[in-house]
């Protein structure tokens, strides 16, 4: 079986797609970590940080059904480049956020970045199988799944360090430059990022195209299970709002907030690498997904009772070791189950449900974060994930992924 390293060294276009994603994910954290620390300092409230996170995910959720259709219709390379350039312009608006009066501009900027990411994410996920050979897909998913975790470690750590040492606006400048670099790297990809389309086919209206994908998912219980599995971690994702507040509570400031996001990324990076053997055993995928959700929830329940900040870091790592594994395992299974002509829309549906769950969680936390003990918030988010995971496993107990799909057409 090909190794992740061999796929990276042999395949130039996959290497470029992966490099561009690394830069995009890193830029995201050079924006979010300093911004989540800056807004409470400017406004005296934790609500603005929660609203920024909710805008980031909620706008994604609303747009993904449409952007998935776009990813199946248009040149995915052009979509990725345009999304990076649009996010570059949006990040520049953050330089105007200087006081409580200008704090709403952060919502505008992050909202615009979220629009760009809504176009970027399904196009990048749907493009991956087109830049690698079929036998390399599992290894490529392991590498691609590590991109987010890798750059959460680097971006969150450096974002916290740069913000502490030079201020948030230097971090915003690094993010803007990174997005421009990602657009240039994507321009260098030579392989087509989608299968050839029938030039004589009559274009289907966006609404009908979305309904086609939903009907496809609805007729296949295995797909229904896979596109709902990320929602468990999503519904517990309101814990991110508490990160800067936890750092303040433990007296570790912006650097501590960066470390929390960094160990989150470390877990998301290492989890898929350690659990890569699961990809070879399709019978293990559904039970593995259920266990990963439960471990995520238990990790954050543990954080609520941790007496020391180092222990908090360990438990956050464990939670996202499970969460990152959940994401990669479900992505790999979906890529094998869905034909290329529908893959963008199905991945958009998958991302929509996950980001909608995240937005609901973050808005719920925003409503109570200034009035409820932070530990109660952590326990509540963890319990929601555990309960969802148990219900999901009961509902999917009769399903199996042991039959090899025939969807790579």
Number of helices: 16
Class per helix and strand makeup: mainly alpha
By CATH, the superfamily comes out as MFS general substrate transporter like domains
The CATH architecture can be given as Up-down Bundle
If you average the pLDDT, what whole number results?
A: 82
Shape: globular
Question: What percentage of residues falls in helices of 4 or more residues?
Answer: over 70%
User: What's the structural domain tally?
Assistant: 1
CATH class: Mainly Alpha
Number of strands: 0
- Range of strand content: under 5%
Largest beta-sheet details: none
Radius of gyration: 20 Å
Low-confidence stretches: none
Overview of this protein structure:
With 409 residues, the protein is mainly alpha-helical. It has one domain (4-193, 203-396): MFS general substrate transporter like domains (Growth Hormone, Chain: A). It contains 16 helices and no strands. Helix 2 (12-43) runs antiparallel to helix 3 (47-73) and helix 6 packs antiparallel against helix 7 (168-187). The chain is globular, with a radius of gyration of 20 Å. It starts with a helix and ends in a 13-residue tail after the last helix. The mean pLDDT is 82.
Attribute tags:
mainly alpha, Growth Hormone, Chain: A, 16 helices
């Amino acid at each position: 079986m090909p190794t992740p390293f061999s796929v990276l060294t042999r395949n130039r276009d996959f290497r470029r797609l992966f490099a561009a994603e690394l830069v995009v994910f890193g830029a995201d954290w050079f924006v979010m970590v300093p911004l989540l620390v800056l807004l409470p300092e400017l406004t005296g409230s934790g609500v603005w940080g929660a609203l920024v996170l909710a805008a980031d995910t909620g706008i994604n959720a609303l747009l993904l059904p449409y952007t998935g259709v776009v990813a199946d219709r248009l040149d995915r390379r052009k979509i990725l480049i345009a999304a990076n350039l649009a996010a570059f312009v949006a990040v520049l608006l953050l330089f105007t956020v200087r006081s409580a009066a200008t704090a709403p501009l952060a919502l505008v900027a992050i909202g615009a970045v979220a629009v760009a990411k809504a176009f970027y994410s399904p196009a990048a996920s749907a493009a991956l199988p087109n830049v690698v050979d079929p036998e390399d897909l599992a290894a490529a998913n392991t590498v691609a799944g590590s991109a987010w975790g890798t750059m959460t470690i680097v971006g969150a750590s450096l974002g916290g360090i740069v913000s502490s040492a030079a201020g948030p606006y230097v971090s915003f400048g690094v993010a803007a430059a990174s997005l421009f670099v990602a657009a240039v790297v994507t321009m260098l990809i030579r392989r087509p990022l989608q299968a050839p389309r029938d030039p004589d086919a009559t274009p289907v209206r966006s609404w009908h195209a979305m309904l086609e994908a939903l009907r496809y998912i609805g007729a296949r219980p295995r797909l229904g299970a896979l596109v709902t599995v990320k929602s468990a971690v999503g519904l517990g994702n309101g814990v991110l709002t508490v990160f800067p507040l936890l750092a303040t509570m433990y007296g570790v400031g912006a650097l501590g907030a960066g470390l929390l996001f960094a160990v989150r990324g470390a877990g998301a990076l290492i989890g898929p690498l350690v659990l890569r053997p699961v990809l070879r055993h399709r019978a293990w995928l559904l039970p593995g997904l259920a266990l990963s959700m439960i471990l995520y929830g238990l990790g954050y329940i543990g954080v609520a009772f941790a007496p020391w900040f180092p222990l908090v870091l360990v438990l956050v790592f464990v939670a996202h070791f499970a969460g990152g594994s959940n994401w990669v395992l479900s992505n790999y299974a979906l890529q094998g189950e869905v034909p290329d002509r529908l893959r963008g829309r199905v991945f958009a549906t998958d991302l929509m449900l996950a980001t909608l769950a995240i937005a609901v969680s973050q808005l719920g936390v925003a409503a109570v974060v200034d009035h409820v003990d932070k530990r109660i918030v952590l326990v509540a988010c963890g319990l929601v994930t555990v309960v969802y995971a148990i219900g999901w496993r009961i509902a999917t107990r009769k399903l199996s992924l042991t039959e090899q799909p025939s969807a790579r057409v």
